[in-house]
Structure to design on (780 residues):
């Protein structure tokens, strides 16, 4: 602990000082496991406990139990408690238990004390560990997303887990747990710092918002940037533990009121929509009816697997093949839990655009939301499985640097932006995900979702492509508009892939022997790893060469003018920050601007 | 390959006017081949692979008296020799080109692949040297971007050329840094 740590009740966590997590964090992170282990041990010693109480309160029944335990009393392996009692070590055993408890609690407390974090204008840093200290720092301009998760238990404590994901595998910075309101505010602060926006810009935006008749947003913007105190209830909740136990009646009334406020606040948090109503436009652009969630899951590909698995298990059981149970039941359980988590995570789904990126919230009991700042989306794919086609349902997945690498359930959740939605929903979500090109994309996306052939501005695949893609060759096509490449393909599983060229990593053209014979080629746009792969499987050879050159060129151009790492830094700031300022003018012009920044 | 020639002729007109980039370091914008000595590396690798597989098949044949193993050994040997015969052609097909804003790499005769990597996208440039390549004074230059699929490795560059190219590309990547 080199730097001083400020006491707990603070207004803003993003002031560059070291802060601690919520005091309940150790309990939420590891303590529950400890309590569960304790419960397990007690449950296993149940007979012993019953025996003890019977001996105390009904000595006559002692014999019945004594017989059962008598034989194994000296056997440590079978009955360690009996052994301890027999050897007169009860005192030592109790001492040992107490010592272990003290050590565990001290370790929890110490780990909480040593776990500190700070948010500076450059980075989010976390120090943790007792014996092995770790110091992890995430640069703000590399932030790929911020997730605020509230598991059920954490919600009961009014806390939330904040996760800052940066590019790189398992490089995320996790702050578990923080007070719920503090986490929301910290997210806003981190996003504001990462955006490069200055405080006066935030204030200005607040003013314009106010004149536009959105006073709520203005108020929050101002309070966020100035670090003004929260509504009193929140502070009261965090300081509620402070000893206010004076014996006077008014104090007691105040304490009761405070407790009431605490309960009321918890209830409010539980019922509040997952999107912070002040920061986001209050309406999610997509409404996901419960029936559609259920229906889409039942009609999804996992259902077919479930049916196959159930059939195998039934056949196995009826023919007496026991090994089938061992090998397939776990898979069935996994599948069911996947479907269940898909349903629960799709409940209360919401997606909305905020000034600091797209915010996606979901969950009924355990809730979570994810904020993806602008310019972090490397590829978008809308897919429609054949069973979804009669209903016109689509789902949207994205590639984001960092947290989409692993194939785990959680990663799949995070890369699924729209679990299921109509074509109109897809249009609205695409407009949020790729805001710069939204207007140009709309007609192309409509043609790309369901169209075939050369309709709607997509390229036409030559008929000889049918040799390689007999079903989908009519659907295969590409289009490009305002820095976004669109690839349409797939007949059984319709797919429309969009790649913002400003974030394309490289482009490859590949020609196999059959391709060469048919004068065809394949094009692949390389993006960061994720569920979406942007492949144009079949295209005319000459067209492919032209497309390759065009993509390679446009990727460089778009990347050069892309300013999305600092999405909040607006034009008025840019001239002085431009790479070639006049040496005399820049230093004189800059100070009052930047000075004002720091003063805020 | 006719398209190579076409590209070489077209190249100077396409990117003539661009002053910044490799041109200012004395490089011209044209397709370049890797060192012919790289053929040796490839041939040695193929021979080792051939010896291992043929040897394994022969062991199976002589120890367990499996007739098919002999045929497998013959087939592997013949295919490997054919592959080795095409090795000079394959190595000649490995080409790279430093354009104004990106590096283009291509290789392959049966399965051709051509990749364009913008300089600003390079996260790191890696030099690796195998034992045979080291004996011949060659090195492999690997370009890593944020996309795993990019997979561009220019093999068989003379060591000093590889060093110079690496420094040049790192410098270029630095000036054109473009986020992720």
């Amino acid at each position: 602990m080199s730097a001083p740590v400020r006491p707990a009740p603070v207004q803003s966590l993003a002031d560059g000082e070291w802060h601690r997590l919520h005091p309940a964090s150790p309990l939420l992170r590891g303590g529950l496991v400890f309590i569960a282990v304790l419960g397990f041990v007690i449950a296993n010693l149940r007979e012993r406990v019953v025996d003890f109480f019977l001996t105390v309160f009904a000595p006559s029944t002692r014999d019945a139990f004594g017989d059962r335990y008598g034989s194994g009393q000296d056997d440590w392996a079978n009955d360690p408690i009996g052994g301890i009692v027999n050897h007169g070590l009860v005192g030592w055993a109790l001492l040992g238990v107490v010592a272990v408890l003290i050590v565990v609690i001290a370790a929890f407390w110490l780990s909480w004390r040593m776990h500190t974090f700070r948010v500076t204008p450059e980075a989010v840093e976390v120090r943790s560990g007792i014996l092995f200290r770790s110091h992890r720092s995430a640069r703000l301009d590399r932030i790929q997303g911020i997730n605020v998760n509230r598991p059920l238990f954490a919600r009961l404590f009014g806390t939330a887990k904040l996760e800052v994901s940066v590019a790189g595998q398992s490089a995320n910075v996790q702050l578990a747990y923080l007070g719920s309101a503090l986490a929301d505010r910290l997210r806003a602060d981190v996003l504001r710092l990462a955006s490069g926006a200055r405080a006066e810009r935030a204030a200005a935006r607040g003013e314009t918002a106010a004149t536009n008749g959105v006073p709520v947003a203005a108020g929050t913007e101002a309070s966020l940037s100035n670090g003004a105190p929260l509504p009193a209830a929140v502070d009261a909740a965090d300081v509620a533990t402070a000893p206010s136990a004076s014996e006077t009646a008014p104090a007691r009334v105040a304490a009761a009121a405070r407790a009431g406020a605490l309960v009321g606040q918890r209830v409010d948090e539980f019922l509040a929509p997952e999107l912070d109503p002040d920061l986001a436009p209050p309406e999610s652009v997509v409404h996901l009816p419960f029936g559609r969630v259920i229906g889409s899951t039942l009609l999804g590909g996992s259902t077919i697997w479930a049916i196959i698995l159930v059939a195998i298990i039934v056949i196995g059981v009826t023919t007496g093949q026991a090994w089938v149970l061992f090998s397939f039941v776990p898979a069935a359980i996994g599948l069911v839990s996947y479907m269940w988590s898909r349903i629960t995570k799709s409940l209360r789904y919401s997606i909305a655009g905020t000034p600091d990126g797209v915010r996606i919230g979901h969950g009924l009991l355990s809730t979570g939301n994810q904020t993806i700042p602008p310019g972090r989306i490397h590829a978008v794919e809308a897919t429609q499985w054949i069973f979804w086609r009669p209903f016109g349902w689509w789902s949207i997945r994205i590639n984001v640097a960092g947290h989409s690498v692993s194939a785990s359930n959680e990663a799949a959740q995070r890369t699924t932006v729209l679990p299921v939605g109509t074509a109109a929903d897809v249009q609205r979500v695409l407009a949020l995900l790729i805001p710069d090109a939204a207007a140009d994309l709309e007609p192309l996306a409509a043609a790309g979702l369901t169209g075939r052939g050369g309709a709607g501005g997509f390229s036409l695949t030559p008929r000889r492509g049918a040799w390689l893609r007999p079903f989908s060759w009519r659907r295969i096509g590409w289009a490009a508009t305002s820095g976004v490449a669109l690839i349409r393909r797939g007949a059984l599983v319709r797919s429309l892939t969009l790649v913002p060229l400003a974030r394309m990593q490289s482009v490859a053209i590949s020609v196999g022997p059959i391709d060469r014979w048919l004068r065809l080629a394949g094009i692949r746009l390389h993006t960061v790893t994720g569920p979406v792969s942007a492949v144009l499987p079949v295209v005319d050879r000459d067209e492919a060469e032209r497309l390759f050159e065009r993509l390679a060129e446009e990727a460089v151009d778009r990347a050069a003018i892309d300013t999305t790492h600092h999405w909040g830094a607006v034009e008025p700031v840019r001239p002085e920050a431009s790479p070639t300022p006049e040496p005399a003018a820049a230093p004189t012009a800059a100070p009052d601007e930047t000075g004002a920044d720091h003063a805020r | 390959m006719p398209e190579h020639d076409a590209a070489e002729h077209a190249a100077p007109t396409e990117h003539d006017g661009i002053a910044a980039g490799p041109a200012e370091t004395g490089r011209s914008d044209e397709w370049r081949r890797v060192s012919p000595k790289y053929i040796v590396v490839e041939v040695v690798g193929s021979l080792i692979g051939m010896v291992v597989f043929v040897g394994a098949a022969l062991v199976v044949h002589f120890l367990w008296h499996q007739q098919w193993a002999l045929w497998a050994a013959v087939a592997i040997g013949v295919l490997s020799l054919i592959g080795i015969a095409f090795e000079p052609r394959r190595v000649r097909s490995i080409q790279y080109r430093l354009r104004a804003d990106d590096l283009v790499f291509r290789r392959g005769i049966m399965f051709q692949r051509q990749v364009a990597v913008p300089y600003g996208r390079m996260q790191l440039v890696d030099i690796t040297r195998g034992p045979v390549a080291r004996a011949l004074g060659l090195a492999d230059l690997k370009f890593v971007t944020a996309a795993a699929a990019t997979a561009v490795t220019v093999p068989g560059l003379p060591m000093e050329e590889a060093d110079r190219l690496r420094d040049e590309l790192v410098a270029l990547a630095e000036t054109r840094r473009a986020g992720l």
